[in-house]
Design goal:
297 residues; alpha/beta; Rossmann fold; GMP Synthetase, Chain A, domain 3; six-stranded mixed sheet; three-stranded mixed sheet; 9 strands; globular
């Protein structure tokens, strides 16, 4: 009988190459928020895929970029720290265009980390990638193998999964078979509120918003709803005004959008209460980042 395999696999790449989409695809359900905006993921999120004779613990990392503020530095640090803890790295790139400065920046970090790498060219719906484009990524970092996929539509993902599973070290399952993530429901709720902000606002606003779940109360009876109270922190009064909107219309839209997503994820009814507060310069100050959970040590 073949030995059981298990291990940690990091999804690493520059912002907006589809890491969270691939994580959700591999897990089989939504455990990470998704947006077309860069820097959607701000925390390391683990998703668990359990198959016949193997278990992958997939770690979705923040998009690696040259940081512009302390929050950016923490996001990059989180991604780099992850590299030291995993058995394998999936280096995700946008297969529709040649390698750029951001990809080279990520590749340099991978070379320093010295972990085994699989090159994954994402967002290629046709399944075919021009050789001259692929070659620009081959030049960045030595890879064990290459895969051309569409995480959004699932093309090429089964082959990638089989390749990854076969390269894991022998070992017992790391999580119970029924687990799909190590996120708590409270954490997931906060992320889904932030996803609503990413979807419904534009320009600098979504990047200036942090969400803190202040209360998360389970229902006492089957007829009750899960009560969630969350605060949206922004850096300026003008951003607060945008999130609230005229007569509170934008905040109500954000709340109803987030509530539907949370109810779908938790599979039960939710009462969601949102507040907006100004925390000037929170992305640049360590004390604020600690309060909001971006600095934990």
């Amino acid at each position: 009988m073949p030995a059981h395999r298990s291990g940690f696999v990091a999804l690493v790449g520059r912002p907006n190459v589809g890491k969270s989409t691939l994580l959700n695809r591999l897990v089989g359900q939504k455990v990470a928020i998704v947006s077309s905006k860069a820097q959607t993921t701000r925390h390391r999120i683990r998703g668990v895929h359990t198959g016949e004779g193997y278990q992958l613990v997939l770690v979705d990392t923040p998009g690696v970029h040259k940081p512009l503020h302390l929050l950016g530095e923490q996001l990059v640090k989180s991604a780099v720290d992850t590299l030291a803890e995993v058995d394998l790295v999936l280096f995700l790139v946008d297969g529709r265009s040649t390698a750029g400065r951001g990809d080279r920046y990520v590749a340099d970090l991978l070379l320093k980390a010295g972990r085994p790498v699989i090159l994954v060219a994402n967002k290629v719906e046709s399944g075919k990638m021009p050789p001259e484009i692929l070659e620009t990524y081959r030049d960045l970092v030595p890879a064990l193998s290459e895969h051309v996929i569409s995480a959004l539509y699932g093309k090429g993902v089964a082959s990638l999964l089989a390749d990854v599973a076969g390269r894991l070290p022998e070992g017992p399952p790391l999580f119970p078979d029924e687990d799909v993530t190590d996120q708590t429901e409270r954490q997931l709720a906060g992320e889904l509120v932030r996803e609503a902000v990413l979807r419904l606002t534009s320009e600098e606003v979504p990047h200036s918003v942090a969400v803190l779940v202040d209360e998360f109360r389970e229902p006492e009876t089957p007829a009750d709803k899960t009560f969630i109270k969350a605060t949206l922190y922004v850096e300026r009064d003008s951003q607060k005004g945008i999130l609230i909107g005229d007569k509170g219309i934008k905040l109500r839209e954000l709340g109803s959008t987030a509530r539907r997503s949370i109810e779908k994820a938790l599979d039960r009814q939710v009462y969601l209460e949102l507040w907006v507060k100004v925390m000037p310069g929170w992305r640049k100050q360590a004390r604020h980042l600690k309060q909001l959970g971006y600095i934990t040590e």
